[in-house]
């Protein structure tokens, strides 16, 4: 081993990397648009990394290896892919003359090319962060094709900061991988472990040589139930750390296991030649005395501060947990349960929030202070006694603050009966809807949003600043809606949307129009690549003071004779993409939102809207990582959707939209939503989902996406026809809808128009062959 310094007493598992003012987003998008070159991008990235190091040092993370080296240009899994050379064969040769995967190759994998779709993207555990999915097969070759993590470490060190380099660990990497196109049907990526490990070992040796005293290998997959048997995972973990533990001149190894309790894998890691083990002691439990005994000799990095939500830490509770670990005679240090990349950077920037609300919140920077306070507690309880008492007092005051509990909301929830969650049989609804809507076979529609142009954003910014009046803003948005409706008429879509120009974000928009929420100004959190969202804060009981979407929907419907979809965001997604109160069961909060949406649907129906889409793209995301916890989740989540929609008339067609591809996993829940039509991502995963639909015998309307909207690539009509051809082989044509994978808000108009034109043309061709 290189250096033998102790693990820092206080640290974070990871830190936001997008920059305080989203500097990384601007730099990357500038690079993609050829406005800056690779050197300028590199300089911007370095500035962000140094800024982080300075800030964290200032906040008290001043021991060696306390600052997590979690910067990434796009995604930490993509970083691992490019370091070990795991490029899918379909991309051809991406290495440059030096045999390295440079920044251009890196972004090619993330964004695709004219011929090749990018790597698939999926959610990182139960967060709203998306990683790129490695494609591994028997043909994949592994070699060290990037040393960026070493260079980043060296650069920080040269500037006076010894950071702690971060890599996704080998077992998690392979468990998150999917089989490549070339792989045989029963191929398991984990079978390539022996070839992957030497590359990791080489990287560790290089980091050691560069002077790193610690490396963090992130193994969150070990806290989630996997399809692979536990014994196989245990063997893979043991083997991995045996090999990496033996890497020449390596740094000391911290294995981090965020997102829950390790359970069966704890003894395996306890027996491995690693120097420190991080456990999630916030969401997971404090290990038992027997488990703790196994950890003797290792540093336990206790993740007692929640990295994934924004409420201040119950320091008294955390101190108690730390005391148990300390009493077991272990070397204990304090950290966050997960990387803080899932929360915004600094709550003190949110000066528009009331002082009271702000006092309840801890963003990444405030979590540093909490971690430092708790580390001080371990050394000398007296030193942090005041801070601990203060936190308890704030938590107590929050419980009784105005708006946190509203009697009228609670009474309405208490009065619900099973009838409030059920519609008529689908057959009855289907007949009523066929009559009301008279749609052609394979109806075409889009998922809701149209491109959010610079003009739309600038109008909103001006309205927020007061530079234009609310009426002027409304007029501009109505003009935009008119353009979008005319475009869809021209393209000959069957079911139209208004395009959602008035929504900054599909959750924030509702949060701004419901009581019980607040929104932030600078609270950006990375969602994928350069995309960030600003999750709202759901802190109180939810009420709807007045109709939210009706005026827009009514206006849009007045412009066309075709059906206009009303567009709402569902309760589960509103919860998933907000920071949600932690003082009551999530199901109660979801039902409060559900009732507000139910009232909105009644108002839309009264305004003449015949189709209403309630988006639930996050249904899969909140699915607990442990199977034992899943039924309870699916029960409350499905019920809250049903509560939202079950007030609709039989003739009102309820749509839902889900954007992820592992449909199979929760198909029963999707069925349970009882929506009349479900649209789902499929193009990016090349129609894999239709097999699940067929196997399940899914009986209601379904629109597997035929246009991957996550990249600027335009699918040709032939490609769309082919996807539809696959779909009609597996799903009865009378159930099929034709739509993109997701909304179009991130796309430009040029590619959108061309893609949608191809989509309609292909549909007409396939339709003609149906009879
Ligand atoms: C992430 S799902 C997006 C659904 C929303 N209706 C849209 O089209 O943008
Ligand atoms: Zn979507």
From TrEMBL:
Cross-referenced InterPro entries: Cbl-indep_Met_Synth_N, Cobalamin-indep_Met_synthase, Met_Synth_C/arc, UROD/MetE-like_sf
Q: Which residues bind L-homocysteine?
A: 447-449, 615
Domain of life of the source: Bacteria
Cofactor requirement: Zn(2+)
A Pfam family reported for this protein in Swiss-Prot or TrEMBL: Meth_synt_2
Q: What GO terms are given for molecular function?
A: 5-methyltetrahydropteroyltriglutamate-homocysteine S-methyltransferase activity; zinc ion binding
Coiled coil spans: none
Specify which residues bind L-methionine according to the UniProt entry for this protein.
Answer: 447-449, 500, 615
Q: Active-site residues?
A: 710
Which of this chain's residues are annotated to bind 5-methyltetrahydropteroyltri-L-glutamate? 25, 128, 531-532, 577
- What does the record note about the cofactor? Binds 2 Zn(2+) ions per subunit.
Query: Which residue range or ranges hold the Cobalamin-independent methionine synthase MetE N-terminal domain?
Result: 10-326
Protein name as catalogued? 5-methyltetrahydropteroyltriglutamate--homocysteine S-methyltransferase
Source organism of this protein record: Arthrobacter psychrochitiniphilus
